[in-house]
Amino acid sequence: MKKIINDPNEVVQEMTKGMAVAHSEQLHQLPGTTVIARNDAPNENKVGIVSGGGSGHEPAHAGYVGKGMLDAAVAGEVFTSPTPDQILEAIKAVDGGAGVFLIVKNYTGDVLNFEMAAELAEAEDIRVEKVVVNDDVAVDDVSSRRGIAGTILVHKIAGAKAEQGGSLEDVKSTAEKVIENVRSMGMALKPCTVPAAGVPSFELAENEMEIGIGIHGESGIERKDISTADDIAKELTDKILGDFDFSGSDTAVMVNGLGSTPDMELYIVSNKVQAILTDNGIYVDKTFVGEYMTSLEMAGCSVTLLKLDDELKQLLNEPSNAMAFQG
Amino acid sequence: MKKIINDPNEVVQEMTKGMAVAHSEQLHQLPGTTVIARNDAPNENKVGIVSGGGSGHEPAHAGYVGKGMLDAAVAGEVFTSPTPDQILEAIKAVDGGAGVFLIVKNYTGDVLNFEMAAELAEAEDIRVEKVVVNDDVAVDDVSSRRGIAGTILVHKIAGAKAEQGGSLEDVKSTAEKVIENVRSMGMALKPCTVPAAGVPSFELAENEMEIGIGIHGESGIERKDISTADDIAKELTDKILGDFDFSGSDTAVMVNGLGSTPDMELYIVSNKVQAILTDNGIYVDKTFVGEYMTSLEMAGCSVTLLKLDDELKQLLNEPSNAMAFQG
């Protein structure tokens, strides 16, 4: 295992401290936790927005803590849900009286632990609402669909809605609209290694790629020979277009790197995705290319499409000063 | 070679096109070139800023094209200097009458080709000035020092100076001040593979790392057993502090990933760098952690320190809308 770390069991603690020290002008670590929160939270005029999940997806989620996005992010161990007590600390830290909204990715542990934290917060008279993001179309059964890179667009849009003074119900309604209209699909060329495990989570031969990969080092739904960037872009995009009707609509596109795929390759994929969308009469209003939701040093990418209406378009274009949000 | 590409000989062309299509609201590709330029260039009230170099360092350099940074970036083939005619096209595209300033990294090909382009531009009555960035302290001989991640801070500060209406001479003088006060040092755990070559540029055993690495796939100055993140941070930072007196000063710090090193590891390194600087009485005013100047999918990092005075501090904090500049 070639990693720049100290103790494999302390990576999340050290990373969280490193983030807080590096960006102390706008965020801080809640003492005794791996929660990163905005320095200007809580804000009594604004719904607090909290997300999080296992670590190893950086810049998700702490990189999205900032004005116009999240108020706090909770980091679990690598690829492991954060505990309810840590999530509760985040909720308490950002509640200014207008309530707290939780953005959860659809994994069993995350859903259970965020739900439990919400109940504990409500017992302390904090109003809490949540959404569960399930943008990954690799899995046909909708209830089993995982939350992947599309989650970042939920962060952005729900965060902007809260920043504009939307009520807890408004923020929830807008976030649900994003979830209804967002779809993603990913693939990998190389697996990743969880520090505490020390070995890759699966193996891929030199000529193989894996389609429908998740972001937790789990293998995908189909293994096949590596094809060209254009074929990969087409396979991912076609799967998304087959799942949801984007025709005639304005969209946002995200081509997301999973960790070790150079921007060069992501832009080559993006180039083809845009051509496919144009051929399908789909107008691209906004494009994001880069590492937004990673899986440690996995090589691969995902494509995300979000169908936009006027409200979503406007909120997506609102400014944010979150460290990792480019666009 | 596991890469998401189509033709290894077309990666730069396809990437450039992909960038222009993805970010058409703020930049475009000059026809028949691999130059990316701002849509609002040329600006008659502003010095034009041009940088560039070999491809494979993304987001450098096109990711820094935007308000407050570069007006245009010229992309050569992977790890190969762009040709003088392409650089000349960039200069002509961004000259609004106030002159054009070139930011060049200290590699023989880049220095020669940017110089030749400057002469060609001057023959067309365009005023041109330039600086050569040589922040890499891995090499003792100052004239042989390479330009690495510190170049991004030159882009940022020179870009802000030009945006504020500084003359060509003002911009040059400020950029020279950055270069005098910036130092970097890098290391790698894994090499990278140039697409057209198909094999890694050097080999490292499973227990080995390379100190003093460059950003063109070349090997470094010392090979040794992998140590901890703290030891690596100390080795890189000590080398920088031994080269230039940062004591008692305000500084900016950049912990830069070379391509496949997760943000998690970069923040662990940053955590230690900050502690070392504090122990040395050096105040950190601003920290950048992420992938700013990469070497394809190389695993490793570099540390950059910039000594700040009031002018540099102010310019570094000016806003920029360049896609890849977070901070």
UniProtKB/TrEMBL annotation, chains A, B:
<dbReference type="GO" id="GO:0004371">
    <property type="term" value="F:glycerone kinase activity"/>
</dbReference>
<protein>
    <submittedName>
        <fullName>Dihydroxyacetone kinase subunit DhaK</fullName>
    </submittedName>
</protein>
<keyword id="KW-0067">ATP-binding</keyword>
<dbReference type="InterPro" id="IPR033749">
    <property type="entry name" value="Polyprenyl_synt_CS"/>
</dbReference>
<dbReference type="InterPro" id="IPR050861">
    <property type="entry name" value="Dihydroxyacetone_Kinase"/>
</dbReference>
<keyword id="KW-0418">Kinase</keyword>
<keyword id="KW-0547">Nucleotide-binding</keyword>
<dbReference type="InterPro" id="IPR004006">
    <property type="entry name" value="DhaK_dom"/>
</dbReference>
<dbReference type="GO" id="GO:0005829">
    <property type="term" value="C:cytosol"/>
</dbReference>
<dbReference type="Pfam" id="PF02733">
    <property type="entry name" value="Dak1"/>
</dbReference>
<dbReference type="GO" id="GO:0019563">
    <property type="term" value="P:glycerol catabolic process"/>
</dbReference>
<dbReference type="GO" id="GO:0005524">
    <property type="term" value="F:ATP binding"/>
</dbReference>
<keyword id="KW-0808">Transferase</keyword>
<feature type="domain" description="DhaK">
    <location>
        <begin position="7"/>
        <end position="325"/>
    </location>
</feature>
<dbReference type="InterPro" id="IPR012736">
    <property type="entry name" value="DhaK_1"/>
</dbReference>
